[in-house]
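Q: Sequence in, structure out?
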Amino acid sequence: MDLDTRNSSVRDAQVVMPLVLAVILVILALLLRSLVAPVMLVATVVLSYLASLGASSLLFQHVFRFAAMDYSVPLMGFVFLVALGVDYNIFLMTRVREEVAKRGHKPGVLAGLRGTGSVITSAGIVLAATFATLSVMPLVFMIEMGTLVALGVLIDTLIVRSIVVPALALDLRPATWWPCLPNPTYGSAANSGTAA
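A: Exactly. Output:
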């Protein structure tokens, strides 16, 4: 019975995870009118999930002293964290795209981060605290689920969305928005001093 449950969970993860990421990639590409930015954003969501999975596994083994993680927790946590991470991505990057169209790439990225940073951080902390309340329930599954999602939201909010995504956007420069730059006059003399 236990082996069947594990095999079923592995099979579900192999189907659901790539499907979810593919759908999100298409939605982000349509929303941001870019091919580079969606790939970058999906990669950061996966990175955030893997970091939270690793950190929560350490907590389960060395702090909570659980024998093992419930088979369904990684997949359920993935669905929650990807959905929440993409929400924050959309909120941040649509604002950044608007600012880039007005100011040029680097000032636009920084202005978008300033404009959304406090809202995303506040929402993330409240959401993480809400999921953390599940960790006081007497069910191992709920403790693991609450811990994983709370850690993932904090990592995503405080590190990935606030540091990693803006840094990658700055490193990639206007190529972030390829093939459709936010402003048709982007790169003209008016913006040449701020495009880098």
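The chain has one domain: 2-177.
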